[in-house]
Specification:
Blueprint lengths: L2 H29 L3 H30 L3 H27 L6 H33 L2 H4 L3 H4 L3 H29 L7 H12 L1 H9 L3 H25 L8 H5 L5
Helix pairs in contact: 1-4, 1-7, 2-3, 2-4, 3-7, 3-8, 3-9, 4-7, 7-8, 7-10, 9-10
Length: about 250
């Protein structure tokens, strides 16, 4: 197998599996919190995005047919509605006990990291283990990967990095909605923002185009989204922000 392919697989695993776990460990060590929020984050992603959303897709997508524009609009809005509603439900439960920023960060790690691990990390870990096992029968199943373009594999890792940044930003935004730092209509804003952020991927799936341009667009949107959410956070700090006493009542999981 091309050494660059192996390098790309390792790079992707570091991004999709090692980075989220390391981030969660650091959060837990520094704040004593985050684990429960991360578990809720990945659970809500699996329930709302990988189960409920897919049920709707099974009904709606056959009705859309080959209409690329309708498919794109539907796909972007469906992702936004289901994932942001999942976030709203998750934070509504979590923030009853812990309204600290660590809850928002932990949820973001769980949602974004869980998505990365489930969509990319696990399959690439299995692929790498299969390669190093040396089993001829198993290796024969990797022929397509062995001849694949390493750039495409590196791009998968970069896309996951951008996606995790986006998920973190959206998680902090929804945390602000639930903790009433911002008005509830920001829930709708988060859905529309999420839908907008999915546009480059949907365009690539439906019409093709340059992978470099698509990944650059996703990365740019990730940066802009993080800056936007930081701006909203800085401007929306409540008059009486959460105190250490509030944090002391929180769980330490």
């Amino acid at each position: 197998m091309n050494p660059l392919v192996i390098t790309a697989l390792i790079f992707d695993i570091l991004i999709a599996a090692v980075l989220p776990i390391a981030a969660l460990i650091i959060l837990k060590k520094r704040t004593g919190r985050g684990l429960l929020a991360a578990l809720v984050g990945v659970s809500c992603f699996m329930l709302f995005a990988m189960f409920l959303e897919q049920l709707l897709h099974a009904v709606v997508i056959p009705m859309i047919g080959n209409n690329a524009i309708l498919y794109g609009v539907y796909g972007c809005l469906a992702a936004g509605i289901f994932e942001e509603t999942g976030r709203l439900v998750g934070f509504s439960v979590l923030c009853k006990k812990d309204k600290s920023l660590a809850t928002g960060v932990g949820y973001g790690i769980g949602h974004g990291g869980g998505e990365a691990l489930l969509l990319v990390g696990i399959s690439f870990i299995i692929t790498l283990v299969t390669y190093f096992s040396g089993d001829a029968v198993l290796l024969s199943q990797l022929n397509d990967l062995a001849t694949s373009n390493p750039f495409g594999l590196f791009a998968a890792g970069i896309e996951r990095l951008s996606a995790m940044a986006l998920q973190m930003a959206l998680s902090i935004l929804m945390w602000m909605v639930v903790t009433k730092r911002v008005p509830f209509y920001f829930y709708i804003v988060s859905i529309l923002l999420h839908a907008l952020l999915d546009v480059p991927a949907v365009v690539y799936q439906t019409t093709g185009g340059s992978l470099v341009v698509i990944e650059a667009a996703i990365a740019l949107l990730a940066v802009l989204s993080c800056l936007l959410v930081k701006y909203i956070y800085d401007k929306s700090k409540p008059a009486e922000k959460e105190t250490d006493a509030d944090a002391g009542q929180a769980t330490t999981v």
